[in-house]
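Field log, afternoon session.

UNIT: design team B
ACTIVITY: writing a sequence onto a fixed backbone
BACKBONE:
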């Protein structure tokens, strides 16, 4: 029975992996877009993490996770006799399938190794497989998702090493590589290994060859990582002397950046209890109660605790920072023994994950990716203004960047937005009616959620002197950043944001004086 349930949940995970929800801009701008610009001719937009004087993001973990699949995909594309570049949307879906496979294979495999009791293992695997976090966040290209796999396999390798009676030179070397990979992926990674790492001390004292293997592998992996980063961030050729005199050490830059309160203020401050009281319940739902009421003490739970404690020290705290703790906690809780209590808890667990799975996996900013695909096929599109949405990934425009300029004004006030749109709008022509506008040389598009009621009077009455022609609509789009309970009230806000869900593209024109 549990095997059939597990296989069904794997299919659910695949469904959400192939849904175009957009959970956070970082899933594109901190990973795929960077490497896509290196391998393909797609124009990309590097964020401040990669363009600052002291860059804080490493490309070392990006190459094996995203670079190798992209290279393989390009090789298959060329090998099959195809001309030109691979459509970027094909690369996008390939990476989504890749993240599904990594989650399905590596995460579940690590759980099988970490949970040794067969009965407890079945429960742990089903809990993780039925979590909306696994369906959504873990199948998206987040550095946090990669960190989850690195933490799980670090714990699995630690367990292999300390439980073996032999000197595990290969396992120790692999652990060292994973640790270096994890640190260059996210500077928060060591927080999850503070307590589990203590188990290695007696092992290294008894078996010094394992310690030597760990040191050598760590130095080698660190050298490769620093070399790749230095080469990526340096325009001139990287010689040995330059590498040792001017190395780019991104984790060190990242640590320095996050230790400055003024830097964190730009991302938003949170109280020290944000992770414990809000983010953990948001990710785990009813399982958070089991964590406090029926925990199963294990190496996994100690790893999760150390991670939460260290991450709570930093004042900027987002829920996705705790992704590595989700499989660790879900595999370390005990279900209620009372049959009635178990049924009630299971029902709440299923409803919680279905609700958040649909919201986060299908509707959350779900129109941005299809919107970029739509714009890439518009021959007249030269200006695209995105309002009240997340930043769109421009690498999905399929070479359209040569003529199409993207304006990201997501937080701009309504009147200011109209002035911005009015300055970019093209002149109204008779050909602007129907589909004949596609033959024009220039076109301005405004992409905004339907829940933005500010636009209603302007779309219907053209009171601003602008003409709004709706040319595209995507219904499975929800803008949760447009909630305004204070001014609009609870039910009015919900009815507006949920009842008027969807993303719309208008072609904007204006009256121009005749010459």
């Amino acid at each position: 029975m549990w095997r059939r349930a597990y296989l069904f949940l794997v299919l659910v995970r695949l469904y959400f992996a192939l849904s175009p929800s957009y959970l956070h801009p970082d899933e594109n701008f901190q990973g795929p877009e960077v490497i896509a610009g290196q391998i393909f001719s797609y124009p990309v937009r590097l964020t401040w993490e990669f363009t600052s004087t002291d860059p804080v993001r490493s490309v070392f973990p990006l190459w094996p996770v995203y670079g190798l699949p992209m290279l393989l995909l390009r090789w298959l594309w060329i090998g099959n006799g195809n001309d030109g570049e691979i459509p970027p949307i094909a690369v996008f879906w390939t990476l989504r399938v890749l993240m599904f496979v990594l989650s399905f294979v590596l995460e579940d495999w690590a759980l099988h190794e970490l949970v040794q009791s067969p009965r407890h293992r079945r429960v742990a695997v089903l809990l993780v497989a039925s979590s909306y976090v696994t369906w959504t966040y873990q199948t998206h290209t987040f550095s946090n998702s990669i960190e989850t796999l690195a933490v799980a396999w670090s714990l699995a390798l630690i367990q292999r090493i300390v439980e073996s009676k032999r000197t595990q030179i290969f396992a120790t070397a692999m652990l060292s590589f994973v640790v270096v990979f994890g640190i260059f992926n996210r500077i928060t990674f060591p927080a999850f290994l503070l307590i589990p790492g203590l188990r290695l001390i007696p092992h290294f004292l008894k078996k010094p060859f394992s310690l030597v293997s760990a040191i050598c592998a760590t130095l080698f992996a660190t050298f490769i990582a620093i070399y790749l980063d230095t080469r990526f961030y340096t325009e001139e050729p990287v010689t040995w002397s330059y590498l040792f005199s001017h190395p780019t050490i991104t984790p060190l830059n990242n640590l320095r950046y996050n230790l400055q309160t003024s830097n964190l203020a730009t991302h938003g401050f949170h109280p020290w209890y944000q992770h414990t009281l809000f983010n953990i319940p948001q990710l785990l739902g009813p399982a958070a109660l089991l964590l406090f009421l029926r925990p199963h003490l294990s190496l996994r739970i100690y790893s999760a605790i150390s991670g939460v404690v260290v991450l709570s020290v930093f004042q900027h705290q987002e829920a996705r920072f705790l992704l590595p703790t989700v499989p660790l906690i879900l595999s370390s809780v005990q279900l209620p023994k009372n049959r009635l209590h178990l049924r009630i808890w299971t029902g709440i667990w299923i409803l919680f994950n279905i609700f958040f799975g649909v919201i986060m996996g299908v509707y959350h900013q779900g129109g941005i990716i299809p919107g970029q695909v739509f714009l890439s096929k518009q021959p007249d599109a030269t200006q695209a203004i995105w309002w009240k949405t997340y930043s769109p990934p421009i690498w999905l425009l399929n070479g359209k960047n040569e003529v199409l300029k993207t304006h990201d004004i997501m937080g701009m006030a309504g009147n200011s937005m109209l002035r911005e749109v009015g300055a970019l709008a093209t002149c109204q022509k008779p050909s602007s009616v129907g589909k004949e506008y596609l033959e024009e040389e220039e076109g301005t598009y405004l992409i905004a959620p339907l829940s933005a009621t500010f636009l209603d009077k302007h779309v219907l009455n053209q009171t601003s002197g602008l003409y709004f022609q709706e040319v595209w609509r995507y219904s499975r789009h929800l803008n949760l950043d447009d909630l305004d309970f204070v001014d609009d009230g609870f039910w009015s806000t919900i009815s507006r944001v949920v009842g008027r869900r969807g993303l719309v593209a208008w072609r904007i024109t204006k009256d121009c004086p005749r010459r």
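LOG NOTE: The chain has two domains: 2-363, 368-510.
NEXT ACTIVITY: expression trials, pending approval
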